[in-house]
Design brief:
Layout (H helix, E strand, L loop, with lengths): L13 H17 L5 H8 L3 H13 L3 E4 L2 E4 L1 H24 L7 H8 L5 H10 L16 H4 L5 E2 L8 E6 L4 H9 L7 E7 L5 E5 L2 E5 L1 H6 L1 E3 L2 H13 L1
Antiparallel strand pairs: 1-2, 3-8, 4-5, 4-8, 5-6, 6-7
């Protein structure tokens, strides 16, 4: 493969790209600035390291920061979308072409994504026929427009008796292994049977009932049936 296709002279280091990706994900989930402690926890580093990196990214015009946390600038969003796209395409490549099993693909993609430049990313996207989502069900962003979509909601938001379709599952290996064993994957239909103490949820999944902790249930994103929304609107319209 030609050497020019690899990212030898990238303006951003792999570490800087990981921070941009983490801030992008955090903003997408919370719709607000991402706190230093949340970045530190998610990236497995200490708070002072986060502050130092945010200062560096701010100097490059990619991030703004204040006491409430960090947010991407417009240019920061553009760079983050490029990073997130490469990561999700790397996951797709590993799963769809190389047959990598779903547990662990996120971690391998984290290492793999940094060798892609824009030209190679385009070739991989074309090879994979421009997939809409990564193997975990998250949309693959290609522009600011297509990165802003109707956001699914956490499974933990649903009430007893509600049904839904799983859209996205968390990426960490342990969570994936747990959900894979329960056959809870993107596209699975589940029903909330009971809300248990400390936020845990009892689900009906196929013929079996399973309990999920609040932590994992809050990371599973779902969509309610469209028919339910339509009926709700229709009832409101008749009043």
């Amino acid at each position: 493969m030609p050497h020019h296709m690899f990212r030898k002279d990238s303006k951003l280091s792999a570490s800087e790209e990981e921070y941009l990706e983490a801030i992008y994900r955090g903003q997408a989930e919370s719709k607000q600035r991402v706190k230093v402690r949340d970045l530190a926890k998610g990236l497995g580093v200490k708070d002072p390291s986060v502050v130092e990196m945010l200062s560096r990214l701010s100097d490059k015009g990619l991030v703004t920061r204040d006491r409430s946390g960090a947010a991407l600038t417009d240019r920061g969003v553009d760079e983050a979308i490029r990073v997130v796209r490469r990561h999700k395409l790397a996951e797709r490549l590993l799963c769809d072409v190389f047959g990598h099993e779903l547990p662990g693909v996120h971690e391998h993609a984290c290492e793999f994504e940094h060798i892609f430049d824009d030209e190679l990313t385009e070739k991989i996207d074309d090879l994979l026929k421009r997939p809409a989502t990564c193997p975990h069900g998250s949309p693959i962003p290609r522009s600011k427009e297509n990165s802003i979509q109707d956001q699914p909601e956490p499974l933990s938001n649903l009430d007893c008796g509600e049904c839904c379709t799983v859209v996205t599952i968390p990426e960490e290996r342990e969570s994936v292994e747990r959900l894979l064993a329960l056959n809870i994957l993107p596209g699975s239909r589940v029903k909330v049977v009971e809300k248990l103490p400390r936020g845990a949820i009892m689900l009906q999944c196929g013929k079996m009932q399973v309990a999920l902790s609040r932590d994992i249930a809050s990371k599973i994103l779902v969509k309610r049936p469209e028919m339910r929304r339509f009926r709700h609107r229709a009832r409101r319209g008749r009043r």
